[in-house]
Design a protein that fits this description.
Elements lengths: L7 E4 L3 H4 L1 H5 L4 E7 L2 H4 L2 H11 L3 E8 L5 H13 L4 E6 L1 H15 L19 E5 L13 E4 L4 E4 L8 E4 L9 H19 L6 H15 L2 H6 L4 H21 L3 H13 L3 H6 L2 H11 L1 H10 L5 H12 L6 H12 L2 H5 L7 H5 L7
Parallel strand pairs: 1-8, 2-3, 2-4, 4-5, 5-8
Antiparallel strand pairs: 6-7
The chain binds NADP nicotinamide-adenine-dinucleotide phosphate and zinc ion.
């Protein structure tokens, strides 16, 4: 068993403004990486800009990160980072800007390298990354993963480099600005991280500390996710569960629902959390048959009586997601060629078992 999370994580109200001194450790010039709109509306960009100014740190803003960021965007942002002589990168936003920030930090630190290094296993260092999450979903602030869209392969994949943020400044106040669909989809992503890391061949007593505590917190938000009426405490529980979910998958990686989701996101633009959620009930059902004791414990921590109750709840929250039959078949074939994802499943699986995982078509 091994435990490794090198990220310094703070969680509190006004977290960014309270931790200028920690930000100042990483240099005098930085590149801020964010999405096109939300960080201006929810105040996160202002918090970072004011704090950097107060610490005498110069910054340039790259605010063109799209959802499911692409290699092309990462390469574009590197130009800004190099011209700003950035010594560190601050990612502000959901998982998309945070993941992009990690890849951009790698490319700035290696100015001679071209994009092919992103997916080549080499020993390259990256600039320090500071993560300011504004969604409660991916936990990217506490994971080493950076998932990019690869247009030429028509899919998404984690880069070959493991880049943990050096510092994560987490504050649930930004969630109050997010629309209900973003809150729901990202909360389902957290749920998927917690389940997929617990029902996982790499799960053990060290990393189940995270997934189990995360599920206890997540379960408290079930009713308000359904009703759409969230309090400050609900936002806090979601944000903490999200970061903890990131810590959990950092040790185990994700499993089949994540592996199967990328096709839905690439071809239909289905948001990440929703695309993963489609396959969660099938995964829980598969595990209930093969590792019943572990699955019962997961369902009980999440306060569901059985796999059917879990499926009913998710379907009600997400609505139906239709996948054309030929595309589903193609997706199953593709995942069967991904030994890394199959190895994370806590039982042997073949085509029939995976095929049975998608049950929301009718
Ligand atoms: P996202 O793609 O970062 O953002 C989704 C939308 O929410 C965007 O339109 C964004 O607007 C908006 N938004 C973000 N914060 C908001 C707020 N506080 N208020 C209002 N709107 C807000 O969504 P995400 O689900 O957080 O991230 C998904 C990405 O993370 C995917 O690429 C996925 O593959 C990746 N991921 C990474 C990991 C990891 O371990 N690194 C794990 C799971 C998933 P703007 O575009 O204007 O900012
Ligand atoms: Zn995810």
């Amino acid at each position: 068993m091994r435990y490794y999370i090198p990220t310094e994580v703070f969680f509190e109200k006004d977290c960014v403004r309270n931790h200028g001194a920690e930000l100042a450790r990483y240099g005098k010039k930085c590149l801020i990486v964010t999405g096109r709109n939300s960080s201006r509306r929810n105040g996160a960009l202002q918090d970072v800009a004011d704090t950097l100014k107060q610490e005498g740190i110069q910054y340039e803003i790259f605010d063109q990160i799209e959802e499911n960021p692409s290699i092309e965007t990462v390469m574009e942002a590197r130009k800004n980072g190099l011209s700003a002589q950035a010594e560190f990168v601050v990612g502000i936003g959901g998982g998309s800007p945070l993941d992009a920030a990690k890849a951009i930090a790698l490319m700035i630190a290696n100015p001679e390298a071209d994009e092919s290094v992103l997916y080549r296993k080499t020993e390259l260092s990256a600039l320090p990354v500071v993560a300011v999450p504004t969604t409660a979903g991916t936990g990217s602030e506490a994971t080493p993963y950076s998932i990019l869209t690869i247009h030429r392969e028509q899919t998404k994949r984690s880069i070959a480099h493991k880049i943990f943020p050096a510092l994560a400044l987490t504050d649930a106040k930004y969630l109050a600005f997010a629309p209900q669909n973003v809150i729901v989809n990202t909360a389902i992503d957290t749920l998927a991280h917690l389940i997929e890391s617990n029902l996982n061949a790499n799960a053990n007593a060290y990393n189940r500390i995270f997934s189990e505590q995360g599920m206890i917190l997540w379960a408290k938000t079930k009713d308000c996710l359904m009703s759409g009426e969230l309090t400050e405490v609900d936002y806090e529980n979601l944000m903490i569960a999200s970061t903890i979910g990131g810590m959990a998958i950092s040790h185990t990686s994700t499993s089949l629902p994540h592996g199967l989701s990328y096709m839905l996101t690439y071809h239909f633009g289905t948001p990440h959390g929703k695309a993963v959620g489609v396959f969660l009930p099938g995964y829980v059902r598969l595990c209930a048959g093969e590792v019943p004791e572990e699955t019962r414990r997961v369902l009980s921590l999440l306060e569901f009586t059985d796999p059917d109750a879990f499926e009913d709840w998710i379907m009600k929250l997400l609505g139906k997601v239709l996948i054309p039959a030929d595309m589903w078949e193609q997706n199953v074939e593709l995942i069967l060629q991904n030994p890394a994802k199959l190895a994370n499943v806590p039982c042997a699986v073949g085509k029939d078992e995976i095929f049975a995982m998608y049950s929301m078509q009718s």
